[in-house]
Amino acid sequence: NTSVVSILNNSLMNALLKCLSDRRTNKWPLVSSPVPIISIFLCYLLIIWVGPKLMAKRQPVYLKPVLIVYNFGMVCLSAYMFYEFTASAWLARYSLLCQPVDYSNSPNAMRMARVCWWFYFSKVIELSDTIFFILRKKNSQLTFLHVYHHATMIFNWWAGVKYVAGGQSFLIGLINSLVHVVMYLYYGLAALGPSMTKYLWWKRHLTSLQLLQFFIVTIHTTYNLFADCDFPDSMNTVVLAYSISLIVLFSNFYYRSYLVNMSASITPSCGQICVN
């Protein structure tokens, strides 16, 4: 009996994927084969399905210390990635209009590839957001937006690291890392308790910041689709479609939360506004 894993690893499609992949990153953890990330994705869906049922008759788990460490830890990781994206791009004199991938083993090209991998891995870590919701019985936060974004980001950046670890994809990682510094700082402060509430008046602007991010990515990617730039159009097409889908979803969230229900007290959560 041939297992599903064997079929994936020995298929013609998998051979093609390996042929087209970035030889520098091809053997890195969670990159060489799609099997590990697909397994993580399936486990993620299983947790979403089973978790709330297991917690139904249990008390919410007290996670305050864990959330404080987690959120501020993500602030540090995001700040590190923002610095690495910025420094690597600056040293290589990256162009904001058109930047092909440097597939060489030069120190700076490898530095950019490594931070792309860390960014990808951070998206795997951020699946923990969902687990925390379930353990705290915050099932209302398990929205389509939350699950869609968390689940798809891991695949997007698996492909990014495997095929285009660098080049103009750096801009997405750079902007998103900066946004996550602000976002996880908010959640870290919020996790400290009610005493911090008066300092968190800017929660509404987190969604605006997210939308600004998507509009920048959409404009940048649209330009590159029509420009004579040595960067895969297939990647640009996927990024463009994905960023537009997030603009639609986040705009809908913003409209319902802040325009329709202006008088309601709605606290955005990572499940609602988090872009990993």
UniProtKB/TrEMBL annotation:
It catalyses: a very-long-chain acyl-CoA + malonyl-CoA + H(+) = a very-long-chain 3-oxoacyl-CoA + CO2 + CoA. GO terms for molecular function: fatty acid elongase activity. It holds the Pfam family ELO. GO terms for cellular component: endoplasmic reticulum membrane. It is a multi-pass membrane protein. The chain crosses the membrane at residues 30-50, 62-83, 142-159, 165-187, 208-226, 238-255. GO terms for biological process: fatty acid elongation, monounsaturated fatty acid; fatty acid elongation, polyunsaturated fatty acid; fatty acid elongation, saturated fatty acid; sphingolipid biosynthetic process; very long-chain fatty acid biosynthetic process. Its EC number is 2.3.1.199. InterPro entries: ELO_CS (IPR030457), ELO_fam (IPR002076). Signal peptide: none annotated. Keywords: Fatty acid biosynthesis, Fatty acid metabolism, Lipid biosynthesis, Lipid metabolism, Membrane, Transferase, Transmembrane, Transmembrane helix. It is found in: Membrane. The keyword Transferase applies. Belongs to the ELO family. This is Elongation of very long chain fatty acids protein. It comes from Gouania willdenowi (Blunt-snouted clingfish).
